């Protein structure tokens, strides 16, 4: 496997590669993230009252049904970015760009992959029309006016997850363990575990978790092949844009979608859609490699 570019990301992680530092770093990142969220909660409670603050935060972090709730939830991941950078700086003496790779190169990788995957998904939309089963969710005019907020919000959400799983965690593990099964496998298991929600996905839980694990491995592979997070960030962004902004499952985070599926996340009839989506992930991974020639 051509993983030599990964070495330039891992090099800055070697000085603080002790496993306890990585575990503590992940815990610290989430502590900072939750601390910032609760700090905002405290401000809202002080200004508007505890009952209003509780209702607002339940809407954002529990039900997430409205457009505004979805936007606030996505933007809240900026706090996770702060947590990750804080942990990396304190425990490994690393900065943001040591995890993303050289900024200019990362942006170049992001841009090329974004264009390649946009073309791929446009072609799939034409070849595999879905308009027979999907349900209109937002009026086109309303949807277009939301995009200037929804796109950067989604960029923040996907960037935070890539920075955590393929940036900090993958690189710290690779600095300690040489075998890809560990530094790709552990983030994949954690990423998949993060999608374990049987109350929401019901009979589809195993399929969703498997999908998430495979997605993580593909993103890890792109990061290792390119030596930046740019490709994986674009890969993640386009995937989530399709599922959050274009055609979403009804329920949480559907408030920004142009359309929704007629099926719930726990409907067994959703399984064929998951299989098709997994195939699209494979095609997207190939498209990324072709676009970047890696």
At a glance:
The protein is mainly α. Helices cover 74% and strands 2% of the residues.
For this entry, give a set of tags.
294 residues; mainly alpha; 3-stranded mixed β-sheet; 14 helices; globular
Task: Give an account of the 3D structure.
- By secondary structure, the protein is mainly α.
- It contains 14 helices and 3 strands.
- The chain has helices at 6-10, 19-48, 50-63, 67-75, 78-92, 96-100, 103-127, 140-176, 180-183, 185-193, 198-201, 205-226, 230-246, 271-292, and strands spanning 135-136, 247-248, 259-260.
- The protein has a 3-stranded mixed β-sheet.
- α7 (103-127) packs across α14 (271-292) and α12 (205-226) packs parallel to α14.
- The longest helix has 37 residues, at 140-176.
- The N and C termini lie close together (10 Å).
- The model has no long low-confidence stretch (mean pLDDT 95).
Q: Largest sheet, described in full?
A: 3 strands, mixed
Radius of gyration: 19 Å
Strand order of the largest sheet: 1-3-2
Number of helices: 14
String of helices and strands: HHHHHHHEHHHHHHEEH
Strand content: under 5%
Mean pLDDT across every amino acid position: 95
Query: Strand tally, please?
Result: 3
Helix content: over 70%
């Amino acid at each position: 496997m051509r993983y030599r570019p990964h070495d330039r990301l891992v090099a800055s992680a070697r000085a603080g590669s002790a496993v306890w530092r990585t575990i503590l770093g992940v815990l610290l990142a989430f502590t900072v993230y939750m601390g910032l969220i609760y700090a905002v909660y405290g401000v809202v409670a002080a200004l508007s009252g505890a009952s209003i603050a509780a209702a607002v935060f339940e809407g954002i972090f529990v039900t997430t049904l409205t457009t505004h709730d979805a936007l606030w939830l996505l933007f809240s991941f900026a706090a996770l970015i702060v947590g990750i950078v804080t942990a990396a700086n304190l425990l490994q003496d690393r900065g943001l760009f040591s995890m993303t790779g050289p900024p200019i190169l990362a942006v170049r990788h992001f841009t090329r992959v974004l264009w390649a995957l946009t073309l791929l998904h446009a072609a799939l939309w034409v070849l595999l029309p879905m308009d027979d089963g999907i349900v209109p969710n937002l009026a086109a005019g309303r949807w277009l006016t939301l995009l200037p907020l929804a796109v950067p919000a989604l960029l923040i959400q996907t960037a935070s997850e890539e920075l955590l799983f393929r940036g900090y965690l993958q690189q710290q593990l690779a600095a300690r363990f040489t075998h890809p099964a560990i530094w790709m496998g552990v983030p994949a298991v954690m990423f998949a575990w993060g999608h374990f929600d049987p109350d929401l996905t019901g009979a589809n839980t195993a399929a969703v978790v498997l999908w998430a694990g495979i997605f993580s491995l593909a993103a890890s592979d792109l990061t290792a092949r390119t030596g930046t997070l740019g490709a994986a960030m674009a890969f993640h962004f386009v995937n989530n844009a399709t599922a959050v902004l274009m055609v979403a499952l009804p329920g949480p985070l559907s408030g920004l979608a142009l359309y929704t599926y007629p099926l719930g996340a726990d409907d067994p009839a959703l399984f064929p859609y998951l299989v098709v989506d997994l195939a699209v992930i494979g095609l997207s991974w190939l498209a990324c490699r072709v676009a970047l020639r890696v």
